[in-house]
UniProtKB/TrEMBL annotation:
This is Amino acid adenylation domain-containing protein. Gene3D superfamilies: 3.30.300.30, 3.40.50.980, ACP-like (1.10.1200.10), Chloramphenicol acetyltransferase-like domain (3.30.559.10), Luciferase, Domain 3 (2.30.38.10), Nonribosomal peptide synthetase, condensation domain (3.30.559.30). One of its GO terms (cellular component) is cytoplasm. Keywords: Phosphopantetheine, Phosphoprotein. It comes from Xenorhabdus szentirmaii. InterPro entries: AA_adenyl_dom, ACP-like_sf, AMP-bd_C, AMP-bd_C_sf, AMP-binding_CS, AMP-dep_synth/lig_dom, CAT-like_dom_sf, Condensation_dom. One of its GO terms (molecular function) is catalytic activity.
């Protein structure tokens, strides 16, 4: 709402030609229009137009009649336009350069009552309409006074003009524009631009951009210059006209503007004060070139369809607009809404279809009631009777500052192999690649039945673009199916007669446009035969043994054809093999490889306490060579005698190690808690208790080894002492530099610090004395590799019992190895079958806010903590109990709603953190270690009710629990998403936590100062189920406010429980996620 507060007073009952008449009365002798060596003053132009108007009235022209006008550039052109308006009719402009078929179609479709033209054109038009020849008629017998609008019965609700735009059927369609529409549009222009004194009209009157120039100038006393037709298409001639006529304002398409600026010198454009571009994507180079010339030219980027009366938003381009120049904010009396497929406002930063409301929304399409009803819809956000929105078919998104970024056309949304692709999104990403000046992407079908994406690029001057490099850059940001299979370099793009891109004229790509790798001839019979099959399928002349099937344009459906070709050749390969070995030489090796492995049997630990030599046969859970075992033993203090066990990592441990090795500084999975103690004795007692807990549990005495090994392993030490370091604060002249706590926090900051994973325990204690506060501080660092949320609670519980001297109540410690062994005992094929059934047809990531980087280090992450309102918490539990489900199911569905609205998808995938202890492990609730696992959850929301999606999600989560220890990498491989693209970039962690504090007597004298959570995912929601209440921790990368994210979730789950109570059959996608404040901002504030 706040983005749309654009209301401004304007003369609502005034006609557009009356604004001109008022100006003519104010400045009768000023020059109104010039053509060649002739000029007309305001008074003379008004008199001539009046005589023509009275002539048309005498012919019987009435309000809402249409009068066609087809004239060459001339003074008569302006007389004709104004004369038609003054007579009460709507003018229908025709460009004499149009093909005769188009002219005939418009004349027939518009149904004009008369035709204004010139003697040289009358035969070409071949019309039987009453014709008025403007070049030989002076209408001297008619009055020079302004026609009386009241006598004519003319109001601002009557038509001013009908302009034809291209139609999807191949025939143009007429847009009916009323006087109030163009008056509001012109008035907004007067409020926006100060430099309409002398304007050069380049566009044809058949395009609505001419209205901006004509009425923007003639309603404020400026002079309109009409160059000859030959000049309008010649940049050098345009520059001469700008200089000779001291033009102050120019409106044109961006590509022409760039040509002018590249040719211009400072003197040639010295008079220009405003350069307005519209009709195409605004190029950032325009502003750069203006700065290079040192000219005081204000550059404006306008946006708006004919159906919204010339323009709807405007943006003044600044030097910091390096990539995609915004289209700005709504103009006066215009509202812009960016909506999803359910006609709900999308959040800031999320793409949706641009809808335009306000006074500029036109009457609709002439004699096309069905199309008008489809594109002009009731405005659900307006309180005015009959208010409508125009569905532009354009895709855009709100930026945080209230400007809009244009992303492309719905018309350029193509369906390729079952996936809907926004070509504008690909073009935007390409335009951001170094060296690319402009990019266009189209879907071509040069081979029948084989549609593919082809990119056309204009390189920057002196830059040589390489298809393989462009493909590699796009692969970091776009799904595999969105990456063009060919990249064609062009010096210029073909244009239509009106100066816009002619997509039909773009050439077919040749072999040089394909992103192939360095060529190496296939080797051997198998590779050679396989290459021939690839060449035939992909339509290529040759294939390198190092080429990648999907980089060459292959896709999932083509992979099926490939498998059939291979079968005919006597070779067996399945779809999974094709995706896992897409390089030709690897695929050839896979064809020959043996598949299948025997199931793993779980044996007991064979290492005895008196063991002196470790050999491979003593390690039943892992296969290591003697050399590898010796390497591992060499890392353990005390050697073999201090090794209790060696076994593989759990699935999530593997992922944690991957990220640990990826980072060079800091560790996203290193956690640190700060605790204050009132005495050193309490601190020592705490540390002693912690050491006893470490002694009891094998996972807390575990180190991780991977260097020199074929697979990483965890090594359990028999003895591992907690390292305790005394931190000495820095001081100068015996004065502390900052407080002790701040220094200790900086010293132990996980963003800067790393633990040596080769050394157990994976804990570190740093203590410091804080004399100013009479406290002892403990910074306890510990690694996520050995502990999950439940493990930390178990550690605290055991420390609690030890400090109370109640050690006899401690449970019998259980080994972590049992969990590892049982996990290994489940054949990978069991997990693969499940995840392939769930994810095989997912070929695009769920990327809320376009976020795709899941390799972050946690440094750039902000978080917020919120506790749900008790009333809402009770409602959630009440509905969950009624349905017989866990409340976590409702949070999963609510999170899916948030991700759907922020990613533009109605079938979403996100990571869910599973407890990992639900598969019947002995004493699973008491075993310490890393049990949790992250696995993908898929929730489809399209066309499904609230109750149905909740029931389906419950069933899917129950099925997922049977695979809770499947490796995440395995699950992702079963999807259709091709690395390095992630399957998902958002996480949900629903966990049960204790809400009460520990025993007050035990913890008296201790207080928790900080305890942070970290994540490498760009969006993470952690829900703590506290028994009665719920608390939320939302974490998000820079640029996404975590509080805003939490409010989306709260709005979503509030809507869910309300719908369950009152309307469970309501479609889930019809529920809002936007809080009232953001909805106000989007619908009103951004239109201010």
């Amino acid at each position: 709402v706040d983005f749309n507060a654009t209301r401004a007073d304007f003369p609502q009952d005034t006609l557009i030609h009356e604004l001109f008449e008022q100006q003519a009365a104010r400045t009768p002798d000023a020059i109104a229009v010039l053509f060649e060596a002739c000029a007309l003053s305001y008074s003379e132009l008004n008199r001539r137009a009046n005589r023509l108007a009275h002539h048309l009235i005498a012919l019987g022209v009435q309000p809402d009649d249409r009068v066609a006008i087809c004239v060459e550039r001339s003074l008569e052109m302006m007389v004709g336009l104004l004369g038609i308006l003054k007579a009460g009719a709507a003018y229908v402009p025709l460009d004499p350069a149009y093909p005769s078929e188009r002219l005939a179609y418009i004349l027939n479709d518009a149904g004009p009552v008369a035709l204004l033209t010139q003697s040289a054109l009358i035969e070409t038009l071949g019309s039987s309409l009453p014709a008025v020849l403007l070049d030989i008629s002076v209408f001297g017998a008619y009055a020079e006074s302004n026609p009386d609008t009241h006598t004519l019965g003319l109001t601002s609700r009557h038509l001013a003009y009908v302009i034809y735009t291209s139609g999807s059927t191949g025939h143009p369609k007429g847009v009916m524009v009323e006087h109030r529409n163009i008056v509001a549009s012109t008035y907004a222009r007067q409020l926006t631009y100060p430099h309409f004194e002398r304007l050069l009209l380049l566009s044809s009157i058949a395009f609505d951009s001419s209205l901006a120039s004509i009425f923007g100038t003639l309603t404020r006393g400026g002079s309109l210059y009409l160059p000859e037709q030959e000049i309008t298409v010649n940049p050098t001639a345009i520059l001469q006209a700008l200089h000779q006529n001291a033009i102050s304002c120019l409106l044109c398409v961006p590509s022409l503007a760039l040509s002018l600026l590249q040719l211009a010198n400072k003197e040639g454009m010295a008079s220009l004060r405003a350069l307005i571009v519209a009709g195409e994507r605004c190029l950032p180079e325009l502003h750069t070139r203006i700065e290079q010339l040192g000219l005081p030219i204000a550059l404006y980027n306008e946006y708006g369809p004919t159906e919204a009366t010339v323009w709807a938003s405007v943006y003044q381009v600044m030097s910091h607009d390096l990539f995609n120049v915004p289209i700005g904010r709504p103009i006066a009396n215009t509202q812009i809404y960016i909506l999803d497929a359910q006609d709900q406002a999308v959040p800031i930063g999320v793409a949706g279809e641009i809808h335009i409301g306000g006074v500029g929304v036109t009457r609709g399409y002439l004699d096309r009631p069905a199309l008008t009803a489809e594109r002009f819809i009731p405005d659900p956000f307006s309180t005015e009777p009959g208010a409508r929105l125009y569905k532009t078919g354009d895709i855009g998104r709100w930026l945080p500052d209230g400007n809009i970024e244009y992303l492309g056309r719905n018309d350029f949304q193509v369906k390729l192999r079952g996936f809907r692709i926004e070509l504008g999104e690909i073009e935007t990403r390409l335009a951001q690649c170094p060296g690319v000046r402009e990019a266009v992407v189209i879907a071509r079908e040069d081979i029948p039945g084989e549609k593919r994406l082809v990119a056309y690029l204009q390189p920057q001057s002196g830059v040589e673009l390489v298809p393989a490099e462009l493909r590699q850059q796009l692969a970091q940001q776009l799904a595999e199916y969105m990456i063009p299979s060919a990249f064609v370099m062009l010096e210029t793009f073909p244009l239509t007669p009106n100066g816009k891109l002619d997509r039909q004229a773009l050439p077919a790509p040749d072999q040089s446009a394909v992103a192939t790798r360095v060529y190496a001839a296939p080797e051997g019979t198998l590779e050679t035969a396989l290459a021939l099959i690839w060449q035939d399928l992909l339509g290529l002349e040759r294939v390198s043994r190092h080429d990648h099937f999907f980089e060459l344009g292959g896709h999932s459906l083509m992979a099926v054809s490939l498998i059939e070709r291979l079968r005919n050749a006597g070779w067996l390969l399945d779809v999974r093999n094709v995706f896992s070995t897409p390089v030709l030489t690897e695929m050839a090796q896979m064809i020959q490889a043996h598949q299948g492995k025997p199931a793993f049997v779980v044996p007991p630990n064979r290492i005895t306490e008196d063991c002196t030599t470790l050999t491979p046969d003593l390690l039943p859970l892992v296969t290591l060579s003697q050399a590898e075992i010796d390497t591992i033993v060499g890392t353990v203090p005390g050697g073999t005698a201090n090794v209790q066990d060696i076994y593989p990592l759990a699935p999530l441990q593997e992922g944690i190690l991957f990220h640990h090795r990826l980072q060079e500084q800091g560790d996203a999975y290193l956690l640190c808690s700060l605790v204050a103690f009132d005495t050193r004795e309490r601190l020592d007692a705490f540390l002693s208790a912690l050491q006893q807990v470490i002694n009891r549990h094998d996972i807390l005495r575990t180190a991780i080894c991977w260097q020199g090994l074929t697979q990483p392993v965890q090594v359990v030490w028999r003895q591992a002492s907690l390292p305790v370091n005394t931190f000495v604060p820095t001081s100068k002249d015996n004065v502390l530099e900052g407080n002790v706590l701040a220094q200790l926090q900086a010293y132990t900051d996980p963003h800067q610090r790393r633990l040596n994973l080769n050394q157990a325990p994976l804990f570190s204690a740093d203590i410091a004395h804080d004399p100013a506060n009479h406290e002892w501080l403990l910074a306890l660092s510990f690694h996520h590799m050995i502990s999950d949320h439940m493990t930390l609670e178990l550690i605290v519980s055991e420390i609690n019992l030890l400090l109370q001297e109640r050690a006899e109540l401690l449970p019998v410690p259980l080994p972590y190895r049992n969990f590892i062994a049982q996990t290994l005992n489940v054949p990978a094929s069991v997990h693969e079958d499940y995840f392939r059934a769930r994810l095989a047809d997912i070929d695009a990531p769920t990327a809320p806010f376009g976020l795709l980087n899941v390799q972050g280090d946690g440094k750039d992450v902000a978080e917020t903590y919120l506790k749900l309102d008790t009333t809402l918490a009770r409602a959630i539990r009440s509905q969950a109990r009624r349905l017989g489900i866990n409340p976590g199911v409702l949070f999963h569905v609510a999170w899916a709603q948030v991700l759907a609205q922020t990613s533009g998808r109605d079938d979403v995938v996100f990571g869910s953190v599973l407890l990992g202890r639900l598969q019947g492990y002995a004493g699973a609730d008491q075993v310490m270690g890393m049990f949790i696992n992250t696995l993908p959850v898929r929730i489809s929301l399209a066309g499904i009710s609230v109750l149905e999606v909740i029931q389906a999600t419950y069933q899917n989560l129950m099925a997922l629990l049977e695979h809770e220890q499947a490796p995440l990498a395995l699950a992702i491989r079963c999807s259709g998403v091709t690395p390095p693209m992630p399957l998902f970039s958002a996480l949900l962690n629903y966990r049960h936590s204790h809400s009460g504090a520990a025993d007050a007597k035990v913890w008296n004298g201790m207080r928790m100062l900080t305890a942070e959570e970290r994540t490498n995912y760009p969006l993470t929601l952690s829900v703590d189920d506290l028994g009665e209440d719920f608390s939320l921790v939302t974490q998000s990368v820079s640029g996404i406010d975590p509080t805003r994210l939490a409010n989306y979730l709260i709005t979503a789950i509030s809507g869910l429980v309300e719908a369950l109570a009152n309307d469970p059959q309501r479609l889930v996608l019809s529920l809002p996620i936007l809080p009232a404040a953001e909805r106000q901002q989007l619908l009103v504030d951004f239109n201010a």
